[in-house]
Amino acid sequence: MRIAMIGTGYVGLVSGACFSEFGTNVVCVDKDETKINKLHENIMPIFEPGLDKLVENNVSGGRLEFTTDLKEAVQSADAVFIAVGTPTRRGDGHADLSYVYGAAKEIAEAMDGYTVVVTKSTVPVGTGDEVERIIRETRPDADFDVVSNPEFLREGSAIEDFMRPDRVVIGTESERAQEVMRQLYRPLFLIETPILFTQRRTSELIKYAANTFLAAKITFINEIADLCEEVGADVQAVSKGIGLDGRIGKKFLHAGPGYGGSCFPKDTLALVKTAQQYGRPLKIIETVVDVNEQRKKQMAEKVIKACGGSVDGKKIAVLGVAFKPNTDDMRDSPSLDIIPALQEAGASVAAFDPEAMGEAKEMLSGVDWKENSYDTMDNADALVLITEWNEFRMLDLDRVKGLLNAPVMVDLRNVYNRQEMKDAGFDYTCIGRPK
Ligand code: UGA
Questions:
Q1: Model ipTM?
Q2: Structural domain that includes position 317
Q3: Which EC numbers does the record give (predicted)?
Q4: 139-150, pLDDT tens digit by residue?
């Protein structure tokens, strides 16, 4: 088996490397020559734990290659995966499919012999139909099937998610294409991973339904956290109390500053737009989008309140700016709302993140970027924890107190124990737990 992976972004690179680890020959293609040259030197364009090692092993094993030559990669492939970006389209909130359709056209021009074209990018319902139409129009003689195979990788644990998934979803009614996909995922049969074969449109919707459901679950617990603060209850205990019910499940019930990242904000919005377009508005998801947007902004208010009602002229130390730990991804991170709002309220901000500062410097201005946690909080009037990197979970509290001007800590991820913070003499604010 030989596959071509079009796009070496997050999804394409991880999926390509993992398929090669399964023993398939993989060629990853990207238009960006600099990126491909760096990959040839084993320099990863993203931070993802274990990825560099995986790539290195499979390149030296001869199963993984990188190229800018789409034509050659596609010609020799049994299956071609489209893993290009589908960002939010400016102006209307729909997913921008220009990269997907562009790739479909190029693939059509290059394909040789029966080829399975697989959309791995997150695409709205009906995109597979349009990909098929474009290929047919470009190459009326082509022998191919278009399959939907959404990814369910989480940044930071993407390799594990690929190697040990809860399920694999494959959307196609062609038995010939099903057989190719079955071959590709054969290693997962050994660990008895459920493989769900379904219609292409259904598969496309499964991806959005999964992400929007998870986003709704987080938003639900975030609102319950706000209520906990009003009524004097503890959201962590509520999460546990409801999560132990198998029908609810305990994952994705961690209250925080609002979901961010490259997927949930974009996918919730895109599904809302699709539903409106079909005249079947999804009122729950529309509300989830609004509540989450508001929430990220409200987090700055929480910090200001913790600082006695004003941060004007104060220095605020921020730990963690990535949208979650173990990634350098800043897309739609809550920090992008919180930090500018604090600056607007007159605060100066010093910040540190173990991996995301490179990207963050491009997106946030006026921040004093530091080399480590303790330098960041030196002489600050409050410490705000936005991203729960492991290294922020065990700070030396005496040292923290000694460095801060005032022992004010705002923990937006509920990493610390309230009693411990109280005993250590902190004025501690967290999410959905009594003060
Ligand atoms: C998400 C999904 O979890 C993946 O299954 C999916 O494949 C991926 O999107 C995608 O569509 O590509 P990801 O965005 O990497 O993965 O990260 P998550 O771990 O899902 O976290 C998303 C956001 O929700 C983060 O901001 C995180 O801090 C927040 N979150 C998550 C919470 O606030 N509370 C929780 O309990 C869980």
A1: 0.98
A2: 286-429
A3: 1.1.1.22
A4: 999 999 999 999
